[in-house]
Design a protein that fits this description.
single chain, mainly alpha
Length: 87
């Protein structure tokens, strides 16, 4: 399988982000892309960086708005908390 380019990530994100509340597959795809973005950000070697600049650069390269990324992260964490909580 070929590696996704930043441009591909941005295009897929733009297509599926608005649909994530009504389509489970779009939501899963956005969560997966968020994981890929975080992993790419962590792999950037920048001296004296706490990680926020790496993430900002990666989001800019993929043309994914930070607010949308943060929304998907929050939704993902909320879903994990509901799933992990005792019944």
């Amino acid at each position: 399988m070929d590696r996704l380019d930043n441009e591909d990530i941005g295009l897929i994100w733009a297509r599926h982000y608005p649909k994530r509340s009504e389509s489970q597959s779009s939501k899963s795809l956005c969560v997966t892309l968020a994981i890929i973005i975080k992993q790419r950000a962590e792999s950037i070697l920048l001296p004296y960086d706490d990680g926020t600049d790496k993430l900002r650069r990666t989001l800019l390269a993929a043309r994914v708005p930070r607010e949308q990324f943060d929304a998907v992260e929050a939704e993902s964490k909320s879903a994990r908390i509901r799933y992990d909580s005792p019944r």
